[in-house]
Design a protein that fits this description.
With 111 residues, the protein is mainly beta. Helix content is 0%, strand content 42%. The protein contains no helices and eight strands. The protein is globular, with a radius of gyration of 14 Å.
Length: 111
């Protein structure tokens, strides 16, 4: 008998969304307890920040990283806070123009 896998889905669909999703195995502990090493991120392709949530990001040279993005108070819509769910990691900020967003997380498959 195989291992039972739990799927937690976030229902943030809007009319017209396509059905394409991507998956990526979680590496490291920066997003614990939301996702643990070996879990699987499920994300829908997106190329822009659409509000607070967990996003797949890349610098174009390495594997995607998954971080929580949120608005920076007083910065308008040009900067975002980059957060790890694990409190051992520091909060950062970045200009949206400098981020390459690959998608927005819609679920996690726990191993």
């Amino acid at each position: 008998m195989g291992e039972v896998i739990q799927f937690q889905s976030k229902r943030d669909r809007t009319p017209g969304d396509d059905e394409i999703v991507h998956t990526h195995v979680v590496r490291g502990d920066s997003m614990e307890p939301t996702a643990r090493h070996g879990d699987v991120w499920v994300y829908r392709p997106a190329d822009r920040f659409t509000g607070p949530g967990v996003y797949a990001l890349t610098d174009g040279l390495s594997y995607p990283v998954f971080k929580r993005l949120g608005p920076v108070p007083g910065a308008g819509s040009t900067r975002v806070a980059i957060l790890s769910d694990n409190p051992a990691y520091e909060r950062r900020e970045a200009d949206l123009a400098g981020l390459q967003i690959l998608g927005r997380v819609v679920g996690v498959i726990a191993r």
